[in-house]
Design goal:
The chain is an alpha+beta fold. The protein has three helices and four strands, in the order αβββαβα. It has a four-stranded mixed sheet.
Length: 120
């Protein structure tokens, strides 16, 4: 991976340190969060098979019904992924913050997913 600046390199190192210990199965998938400038994305991943089980993002249809700030968007994405996971029979996940600090949008998404019924 080509590292363009120190900030990206720092996040990459944190990400690799987390991924050494965090791995998902079909019964307990890894919930990976990606944060961009415009939106937030989350995937439930089975690492043994190498497949994505479920996804949700702030760019999905119906998410931009009304203008909200990014933290509120993240909260809605957390609720959506929790609802999809519970409907698919998944109760617990392993949380992968993907090198981001656990505050702001990442924290809002995680707390909403917990309130929606996911355990991690």
């Amino acid at each position: 991976m080509a590292i363009k600046n120190k900030k990206q390199y720092r996040r990459f190192r944190i990400k690799m340190r987390i991924r050494k210990h965090v791995s998902g199965t079909y019964e307990r998938p890894r919930m990976s969060v990606f944060r961009s400038n415009k939106g937030i994305y989350v995937q439930l991943i089975d690492d043994f098979k190498g497949v994505t089980i479920l996804t949700a993002s702030s760019r999905d249809e119906g998410m931009d019904e009304k203008k909200t700030n990014k933290v509120e968007q993240a909260r809605r994405v957390g609720e959506t992924i929790a609802k999809k996971a519970v409907d698919a029979g998944i109760q617990s996940v392993v949380f992968d913050r993907n090198g981001y600090l656990y505050h702001g949008r990442v924290k809002a998404l995680a707390e909403a997913a917990r309130e929606g019924g996911l355990k991690f």
